[in-house]
Each structure stands twice: as C-alpha cells, then as structure tokens.
Amino acid sequence: MHTVGSVVAVVPLHGEGILPTGTRADVFREIFWVFLLLGTLVGVVVIVYMFYNAYKYRDGGARAGAVDGRERGAADDRPTLGELPTGGGGGRKLFLSFALSTVIVISLIAWTYGTLLYVEAAPTEQEDDVLEIRVEAYQFGWAFTYPNGHTADGTLRVPQGETVELVVTSRDVFHNFGIPELRVKADAIPGQTTTARFTPSETGTYQANCYELCGAGHSYMTAEVVVMEPDDYERWYENTASNSETPSNATTANSTTANASASVGGDR
Amino acid sequence: MNDETRHRTEPDGGHTTDGGHASAGERTTDGEHETDGGRATDGGHATAGDELDPSRIDGHADAAEEAFPPLGSIKRWFVTTNHKDIGILYTLTALFFLVFGGVLALLMRVQLWTPGGNFLSPLSYNQAVTAHGLLMVFWFLSPFAFGFANYVVPLQIGAKDLAFPRLNALSYWLYLFSGVLFGVSFFQGQSLAGGWTMYAPLNLPTYMPNVGATTAILALVLFVASVTVSSVNFLTTMHRMRAEGLTYWRLPLFTWTILLTVWMMLFAFAALLAALLILTSDRLLGTTYFAAEGSGSLLWAHLFWFFGHPEVYIVFFPALGVMAETFQTFTGRRLVGRKWFILAMILVAVQSFAVWMHHMFLTGINLQVKTLFMATTIGISLPFDLMVFALIYTMIKGRIRFTTPFLFSFGALVLFIIGGITGVFLGAIVLDYEFRGTYWVVAHFHYVMVGGVTALIGGLYYWFPKMTGRMYDEWLGKVHFGLFFVGFNLLYFPMFLAWETPRRVIEYDPAFVTWHQLATVGAFVLGASFLVMFWNLSRSLFVGEEAGDNPWEFATTAEWAVPSPPPLENFPGTPSYGSGSLRFLTTERALTPGEGSGGAPGVADGGTTAAVGGIDHDLDSRGLGGHDPDRSHDPNHGHESHASVWPFVVGLASFVVFLGLSGFRDGGLPPGMEGGIYAGIAVVGTAFLAFALVGMARQRFRGPAGPFGESWPFDGVENTKLGVWIFLASDVVLFGAFIGAYVFTRVAHGWVDWHVVPHDPTPGLVNTYLLLTSSFSVVLALVAAEKGSRYGLLAGLTATLVLGVGFLANKAIEWNELFHEGLTLSSSVETSTFYLTTGLHGAHVLVGLLIVLYMMGRAARGAYLDDERPVEYFGLYWHFVDIVWLFLFPLFYII
Amino acid sequence: MTSTKLYTAIYVVLFAMATAQVLIEFAGLAYWVGVAAILALSSLKAVMVAGYYQHLRFEPPAISAVVLVGLLAALVLTFAAAYSIL
To answer: For residue C86, what is the nearest residue in chain A, using CA coordinates?
Structure first.
C-alpha cells in the first residue's frame, strides 16, 4: 500500500520507468497487471476479513456459553423492535479504511491518467511518419483506404514498427473497430470520425472484430490485419498506387468532432 | 386509524384528491390530472368536518364507491389499491419476468456452448440478447425491488397506504401491460434486436423495419409512464406521510434507499422518456433526429446514458437497503457509521447524473470531458467503499445468524466487492479502451447487477414471513443459496477469464471454449437454484410454520411490530415515535409494539374487526356511513377506499392504444389489411382509453387523509399539490432533454449555420401572447373561485379554453403553411427538432384543454366554489406549459 | 395571497417583455449579445410566472428546490453533451 501511495508524488516523472511506455499493447499489459495484482490483493484481504468476522461473531455453536455470558453484559446494546435508529460506533475504523481505499483508487487512476495523456498525445516529432489509413465500417465488413487512394476490403496491411493512425467512420450504423491483440479500438460512428493510433511491433496476421452490436452479421464482421516487414509493405504499397479505386479524401478528414460529416457518403 | 380530534383541526389534512383521469398517450399519465377530481375528499375535509360532501353539493352523480372483495377472491386482485396487495402483485409479476429473461439467458448460453453454433439464428440471438437485457433491467429488477418498496415502505414510515393508492394501482397495471406489450412484440415479425442500449441509428426502421421493434419501444414508453406515476406517488408519500418523530435521519435504511432511488428515477426516467419519445417519433412519424449524420448516434448515446448510469444505482440501491436491514437484523448490531452511510448514498445519487460519459470514452468526445468524467466516475466509486466497510464492520461484536436472508446479503456483498474492484479497471480510461465491448464489461456489470439481485432474493426471504404469515423452509433456503452462489460464480467468473470475447457475438475464439462452457453450466445451476426457491416458497405458503409478528430477533423497523400479514390499514393506532420509540396511539392510550399486535385481533388482511378505541363510533356519528355502502359490511374498513377497477381498465386501454400505434411508420400505415387493423385498434383503443379515464375521474375515491406526523420540508403543502409539483419537476427534465437534444444537434451541425425553420416569428409571437393571456385568465378563474363567483370562474375557464384553442389553431395554420413549402417532419434535422419539440408542447396544451373542458362541465354545476384547489393545481400545470413556451419561442423562432 | 391588480400588472409586464424579445432580434445587436438578452428576458418571464402565477414565492422553498433540481439536471445534460463535441 505504501508504495502505491507514493506513486502519486512521482506521476509527473515521465519516462523514468513509472509511467508505462511503448506500444499500446505494452501499456495495456503493464497497467492491467498492476490493476489485477492490486485488485486481487485488496479483494482477497477484504473478503477474507469478512469471512473471518462472520466466523468469529457467529451465533451459537461451541461458544454458546460465552455468547450468553457476553450477551447478558451487552444486552442493552442489542437493537430492539421499534427503537429509533442511532448511528453505531466504529467511526474511526470506518474512516481509516475509507481513507486507505481512497488513496489506492486515486493513486491508481492518477497514474493511469498520465498514461492516457501519453497515449493520446500526438507524436510531434515524427508527425510525418504517421501512416494514416481510413477505416470505413459497413454492415457487415470493413473497408480500408490508404493515403494513395487505394481501397481494400476486409484486409488491412500495415508496416511493422511504423505508427499507424486509423481514422474510423461508418457508412451505416454504429460499429466499433478493434484489433484485440494490438489493443486498438475505436468507435465507428456514421457522420463523424474517431482516431486510434498504434505501432505494431511484430509481423503477423491478426484479427479485427466489431465490438458494437450492429445487426445480424455482427458476429462475423471481422477483418484481417496483416503486419508486414516494412520492405514488403513498401513493395506492396507501390503496386497499389495504380489501381486506386476512389479519389482519396481520407487525409482531410482527421477531425474527431462531429462536425466533420461533410465528406462521408451515406447509403441511405 | 386517526386521532380524530387532530384530524379535524389540522388545516392541511383533508382532501386527497387522487384524481387519475390520466391519459397515457404522451406524458400525461399522472401528476396534472390529480387535480381535476375535486370531489375525492375524505369525510374529514379540512376543518369543515361532517356535512361536506362536495359531490353532493355540485349535484354531480359520482359513480358509487366499489366494494372491497376479500383476499381469496380473484376480483380482489383486479380492483385492489392497497399497497400490500400491489406489493405482492409487483413481486409476483417481476418474478415472472425473471423467468422470462432467465430463459432467454439460458438460450444464449446454450448457443455459446460452441463458437458459431447454429442453435439460434444470428437475428434470434440478437433478439434474445436485447430482450434479456431489457426484461431484466426494466421488467424484473426495479419492479422486484418495488414489490418490497410497496409492501414495506408505508409500514416502515408509519403510513396506512401510499399517498395516491389508485395511482399506485395504475402504476402496477401500466407496468404489467407494458410487459405484455413487450411480449407481443415477438409476434410482430421480430422484436428489437439492437441490444438493451438500443444504439442509434440501428434502432431506426431503416435497419430494423419490423413492427415488433416499434412495439418494444412503445412498451418501454408505457413502462416509463408507470415509473413516473410511481415516483410521484412514493416521493409524496415518503416526504409527507412519515410517523411523528420519523425525521429523515431516523428513517430505516431500506426506506432511505427507496427514497433516493425514487428521486433518481424521477429525473433519469424523464430523460429516457425524451429519448424514447424521439425514437418513437423517428419510427412512427419519420423525424430524423437519430438518422442525422454527425449527431444522431451521439445524441442517442448521451440521452440514453444520462438515464443509463443513474439506472445502475436505481437498480442497486434497493439491494443495498436490503443488505443494510438484514445485516443489522441478523448480526444484532446497529449499522456502523449510519449517518455517513446515508450521506454516501446521497452523494452517489446526486453524482450519478454526472458520470454518464464514461460509457462514451471511445466516441471521440474531447479529452477535457473525458478527464472530467473519469474524475467523477472514480469519485462515485469511493462512497461505495465506505458503505462496504460500514457493512463489514457492522458484523463485529455481533451475534451473526446465518439464516437464508443473511446468507444472500452476505453473498451479495462478496459479489459486489468483486464487481466493484473490476469496475475500477473500467474507470481507467486506458484500460476502458480495451475492455469496451468485451466480456469484461459483461462480467463486471453482472457481478454488480446480479449481485444486487442476490441481496433482493435475500429480501424476499426476509419479508416472506411478513407478507404471507408463513415461514419458509430454512434448509431449502440454504440449499437455494448454495446452488445460487456456486452457479453465479461458475457463470460469471469465467467471463472475466474469457474477457477478450466481444460482447453479443455467437462466434468467438475457440481458445475460450472451456470458459464459455463452464459459464453455460453455471447458468443452468443458477437457473436450477430458482426452482428450489419456487418450490420452497410456494409450498411454505400452505404448509409453512406460522410466522409471528416478528420472526427475526433484533429487527427494529415498524413492519415487524404489526401482525403477519398486517391488517388492511396496517396499524392498531396512529404510529408515533414521538416518545423516542414506536407507539401506536389510539384515542384511549398508547400501545407498545407488542401490545399493539398482540392485542389487535385483526390478523388477516381485509379481515375482521380491529376496532380500536372509539373511532368507529366516532366515524358513524359524522354521518359518513350513508355514502359508503361498503362500510356496513366491513366495520374494519375505516373511511378510506381500497377498491377501484379503473386503474386496471386504464392500463388495459393504454395497452390497446399502444398496440394500435405500433403499426405506424414514417407518418403512415402499412398498406392493406394490416394497416387497417392497426388503425382500427388505435381508434378503438383511444375511445376505450377516454372512457376509462373519464370513469376513473368520476369515481369517488378517498386516499389516506392527514394529519401526518412528519411532513418536513413540505408542511402545509397538500399531498396532491406536492404530487403535481413533483410531476412538473420530471416534466422539466423531459422538456429539458428535448431542448438539450436540440441544442446538441444544433451545435453538432454548427450553431450559426442552423436553418431556423419558421421564416417569420409572427405566429410564434402571437402564440406567446395567447398563452400569456391564457395564464392570466387561469389566474382570474382561481381568484373568482376563491371569491365564490361561479360565473367568474366559468368565464375564466372559458377564456382559457378559447385562448388555448386559438393557440393550437394558430399553430395548425402555421404548420400547414410550412408543409406546403415542403418543410415536413422528415425534411431535415432542423424541421424534425422544430416540429417535434413544439409538437410535444402542443400536446401538453391539448391535454390542458381537455382538463379545462372537464372542469368547465363541473364548474357549471357549481363545483370548485367551496374548494378551489383543483383550479389552482390545474393552474400550476398550465403555467408550466406557458413557461416552456417562453423558452421554445425564442429558441425555435428567433435565435 | 396577492390581489388581482398585481396579477394584471405582471401580465402587462410579461406582454411587454415578449414584444421586446422580438424587437431585440431586429435591433441589429451582435448575434450572441442578442441571444443572451433574449434568453435573459425569457428567464425573467419564467421567474415571474413561477413566482406569482404559480405562487412559488409563497410556498415552502423546498418546492422551488425540487423544480430547480430538475432544471439543473437538464442543464447539466444540455451543456455537458454540447461541450463534449466542441
């Protein structure tokens, strides 16, 4: 508990090992494990304490004699029918526990808030390196549009080690684009865009799912996410330039506000 | 029974004009209508006393009061307005919906035995998911808690019944029929299939064209009507009708939780009603709120979650109350830190309205708002820590008896701790991003919600002896708990382990098969545990041991001081805590709880004589018996009414109206026979409803009369007036949410670029003049009534009617012109907001005018001159409608 | 309570303020100044109707509090929701 309390004091110390850094997957893993450990610890302590008291102060049983003796002494202390309620004692203990839990919870959240700012911060220096890909959800699939205007349906290809910014929207209903293994998630809302940034660290094929109930095909609304060697990706990307199907508007629509509805074509 | 002397001199007692005549169409089911009765006074009638029977004075032949059938009669359950009967009806109906929702859950779990199985079609699965969520949250959880609230709260606060018993029955019937309507939706092609959150725009006919989906939404509207009536009723009761000495700090904790729950309900459900009415309009009339690109989806999310998060506490608080009561009773200890516990709950109740956007962290709302709502979310979790610790520390130095109710409460606390800790994970936005839409959320909220159910089941065992007079079988109760607790954890804990499964899918990663199969097994164990309960409780009803007044040692609250089940009017005298503990005051002496229950022979509900003191004689001497055919048969009956069939009839009629409406779509009807049938049902239903409302309004019905012990801070505000004001407060939220929806949409589309629909503010200005003048004429009518001038009153009311009709006519002309310009409801989001918001206001005007018309008829026969309060209460409503227009006019016409 | 004269005076004031709102629209003020003035007038009118016609001035303050809590809830919803997308 003591170490957790001290976390608050050091939150501003970015990059000194207290705030998790790295890809979103790394950040998530680290925070999740801290929460899980601490949560389990607190939960076990509290619940064990509950059971301990429930056992210790159980009625009757082997201690019947003792209870009777004590009861006689404390007879006036038991609630009686029709009495007006009074606040029981034990206030100090209550406040101590309350204060402790408050410290734990607030430190945890303050700590993760630092991470939130880190995750949401736009990488200022390598702004140009960000690969922006537009993701358009529809019932029931995903269309990906690359900066050169190339559009692919159902498969997202990204280079390993490069920061990718997904600009996500929807053609029809509310969807949610998520790649669980890469810890990427963004709502896909008709008429507006949201963004999600991630840096895949390992090549491979992953699966993207829809995380918002969107109709009959919701369960099967998946896409393949292929993280490629940067060179392979470059080669593949070069070849796509020629067969771009639609003029790109992805680069202009990077607003996260609901105002940016102009560029989105609906199908209604 | 009342202390007669005080009864006559208390200026504030008297009339409970439990009027009714609620029309279910818009938001018209309650409050304002309570005023129009005017004759439904009890004999006491303020200071005037014996001779006054307004119905006689105005020469108006009211329908005779109904006789109250005995407990065994089927008819009893259709006409009863007694809070205990209604409580039992709520409990049983809620248990039915538990089974309904539970079976759907089992279907889902069977489906999930293997990934991508084909037990259900994807659309059936989506419907099961949706209906399961809606049924459990709306039709099971809250009503189940309100079964207890109905039964126990009046007993705990020392009231003979709720403030408006007939409206209480109406709440129940609206609830039941809303559930039936929801059931009907499955037979109209396909029910709602978009999840209980009903996200837009999937909830629109474009994506969910079936009539059944509309019906399900209308069922929710009807349900909200029931909740609103109920909230007004409970709030009036709890604030105005507490026994002497029962100040707020001294209220039992279960009553406290219900009080806070009802306050949250009043405002949260008004916001939901706004969302549902807009959705209904989008589906039935073709407005385009939720279809609007760039604002519709988020608008729904805001409105829904503004309701949705308080709803979590609405559902959980009563469970907390049960836990507090049972912990105290079965540990033999008073709650540790009681005041802090209450303050913590108040804090949660207030703050619950400022956390809703944590459901929307991924929707692209700005970082500042996210930060703010993260802070409030974490803030709201802290009071719960305090409550949990308070409950745990209450056990210390106790004499804990592990009866079934305690086991369930204890288990609920364990589950709630797990649910709470896993909820903190979601408060961290970075983690929330990943948990969004996964089984982590499913597992977390089931631990919290079904944790609450666990406590409520404990409450069922706790109050079962009180409600039935019989003891359940303790051993079977423990078996139930064992199966329940094992089944629960087997069902929901594996969901944490399989958390990466997306929600509401039938296809999932085969790596998680084991966890999902465990969960399915757990679901069946959990389901089976309820079979034990149903067997135990229904068998005990007949062969259970007789339970005494107070089967639980160390129970303190007043319901245990009366027989099990309590007699019709609850207490053997006027309950009072004035002396520092509970006494029942009669005209002769004070009974202590033991004496009261032991001495009073009236054991059976509706049973035989419990004549206390000389009250019956006293009543007879007032010459009331002549109006009351029922009294001669039932001397225990006192002077209050307990029977009315009209709530049932109004509920049924509302059901028919809504069923008819469900066929409409985009301002039209389905072609051919089908459309004709729906239109026919709607027309017949409306006529039926009108008949029912008039019948209810004309019936003479007397609710509990004052004086009441504690009414602070509403001393001197008569029950009906307070009811009207509370209803108006919820109406403020309804209109506020409509205006909020307009402001949000306009901001999303660019405030200044917005196209103001009427090009000319003149019709709006004229309507402002008309409404202002009509407000003035209502004031004049009231002044005339106070002065006893029948013609002044009639002139005032007539002027109001004429001005109101003028308002509507002017609006009709204006709309007609706009329609001719091609500006229809579905032209754009601008026209949608304009027509719907001002249309809702117009509907309020229309309802007001119908009331005026009714009052004119009665005023012509001389009503309201001796008692002008109905005119005053109508005025409150009418001025409110006026005030709303004062804002709608500038917002929609000039800025 | 109060006399018919007072009610009449209030009625006249309300009537005048309603007219003033429309005049403000055509007075050529800056847009947001106009909006502020118009809404301020609406609020003032609402307070007068509630205070006198609904005689809240003469009721226990708790009743006004009930209505104001509802109003506050609606305002929180309106402003927080609108702000979230700015």
So the answer is: A257
Residue A88 sits at the chain B interface (C-beta within 8 Å) = yes
Assess if residue B110 is contained within a domain.
no
We report the CATH number of the domain holding residue A198 as 2.60.40.420
Q: Which residues, including other chains, have CB under 8 Å from residue B659's CB and lie 6 or more apart? A: B181, B184, B215, B681, B685
Q: Which domain holds residue A102?
A: 2-73+94-120
Q: Tokens 């159902």 identify what position?
A: A154
Interface contact flag, C62 B714, Cβ < 8 Å: yes
Hunting for tokens 């859950």 — which residue is that? B105
CA B293 to CA A191: how far, in whole Å? 4
Whether residues B717 and C25 touch (CB distance < 8 A) is answered with no
- Return the H-helix or E-strand segment holding A166: strand A164-170
Q: What are phi and psi of A227, to 5 degrees?
A: -95, 120
Q: pLDDT tier at B430 (50, 70, 90 boundaries)?
A: confident
Split at pLDDT 50, 70, 90, the class of B41 is very low
Query: CATH number, domain at B825?
Result: 1.20.120.80
Q: Which residues from chain C sit within 8 angstroms of residue B349, using beta carbons?
A: none
**pLDDT tens digits for range A203-251:** 999 999 999 999 999 999 999 999 999 999 999 999 886 554 444 443 3
State mean pLDDT over B228-251.
96
Query: How far apart are alpha carbons C49 and C47 in whole angstroms?
Result: 6
Q: Show which subunits contact B, needing at least 3 CB pairs below 8 angstroms.
A: A, C
Q: Tell me which residues of chain B, numbers 421 to 440, contact chain A at a CB-CB cutoff of 8 Å.
A: 421-422, 424-425, 427-431, 433-434, 436-438
Residue-level pLDDT at B42: 34
Distance from CA of A123 to the nearest CA of B (A): 16
Testing the interface with A: which of B119, B326, B418, B430 to mutate, by most A Cβ within 10 A? B430
Q: Note the pLDDT tens digit of each residue in B490-517.
A: 999 999 999 999 999 999 999 999 999 9
Report the Cα B858 to chain-centroid distance in Å.
31
User: For chain A, what is the radius of gyration of the CA atoms?
Assistant: 28
- pLDDT-above-90 percentage for chain B: 81
Which chain C residues contact residue B360 at CB under 8 A? 84
Determine the distance in angstroms separating the CA of B21 from the nearest CA of chain C, rounded to an integer: 22
What span, in angstroms and rounded, lies between the C-alpha atoms of B855 and B418? 57
Q: Looking at residue A67, what is its pLDDT?
A: 45
Nearest to B367 among A59, A120, A180 (CB): A120
pLDDT value of position B231: 98
Look at residues B868, B780, B789 and name the one whose alpha carbon lies nearest to residue C4.
B780
B370: distance to nearest CA of chain A, Å? 10
A98/A177 same-domain check:
no
pTM of the full structure: 0.89
pLDDT of residue B669: 86
Kindly provide the ipTM of the predicted complex, given to two decimals.
0.98
Task: Tell me how many domains chain B contains.
Answer: 1
Q: Count how many domains chain A has.
A: 2
- Closest CA–CA distance from residue A235 to any residue of chain B (Å): 32
C62 touches chain B (CB under 8 A): yes
User: Does A167 lie in the same domain as A103?
Assistant: no
The 8-class DSSP code of residue B71 comes to T
Does B394 contact A at CB distance below 8 Å?
A: yes
User: Which phi and psi (to 5°) does residue B643 adopt?
Assistant: -130, 135
What would the two tokens of residue A178 be?
């998520």
CA distance B163 to B230: 11
| Residue B440 lies inside a defined structural domain of this protein | no
Q: Report CB contact under 8 Å: A101, B414.
A: no
B597 touches B563 (CB < 8 A): yes
Are C86 and A258 inside 8 Å of each other by CB?
Answer: no
Nearest residue on chain A to C84, alpha-carbon basis: A257
Domain assignment of residue B202, yes or no = no
Asked whether B226 and B174 are in contact (CB, 8 A), the reply is: yes
